[in-house]
Amino acid sequence: SLNEPEMQIGVKDETAVEKTENRVARFVILLEEMLRDCPTNQESLLSTNGFAVIGALLINIPPDELNMPLVKALQSLCLLLSYDVNPINSSDEAYSPLLHDIYQHILFNFELWSKVDHEVRIAHIQYLSVIIKDNLQLCRRLYGVQFMLDAVRLYCSSNIEQPDTACVLRRAIFGFVKFYMRHGIQIAEVKAILSFIAVTPDLDQKLEAIELITVLVEVPPTSLPLARCLASQDAQDLLVGLLHTPCNALKTSLLVLVRTVVDTCCKNK
User: For the whole prediction, is pTM greater than 0.85?
Assistant: First the structure.
């Protein structure tokens, strides 16, 4: 469009670009330099949905290009966006529209990170952990329990070609869910987990989700409020229905959960 601002090209740190062998990481470093102290380029990238396009392109590049130099380049870009662009509003400290876009389309795009090797996946999970810890309320609102459960369902199936890879990512995502819920039980989130257990066809996903809420029932401060949610009529009906499964492992996990809920409620009568 003739009304859209054009990107201005002027790289201040050519050495950083030249030293990086990964062509995708070089592009991210170049983008960072173009955005630095340049509101015109920032506005252009935002108005053209640039990070949505970049995220879609990253999905289709060879997995070996999604390596540590790219992870470090993305982290450096996020650091720039945290300080260099005006926030969405005063309640979202340092959370700019561009930072929102890179979070949504790249950093929290688990389709992308389900393709990378073990070292890269661990590094990215650790970085997401920092983001979530530092921005708990915001991340819980935008990338909360339901978002994480959808990511597990879509990208962490045990039936894919690399089940060990799926397991690492799945356990990390469930770890994010546990972190959210340790900071306050919300009925809608409990219902989302129970629905997930009921509908997912993947046995490993079912068992790990049941293990997640069992652990939360066992340990304060989540034990009593979560136990009371699970003692509701709707939750009881769902759990009883699941107990009719022919799978012994699933039945055993459900019985442990039910016993833990009963014990917790009885102790706090």
Answer: yes
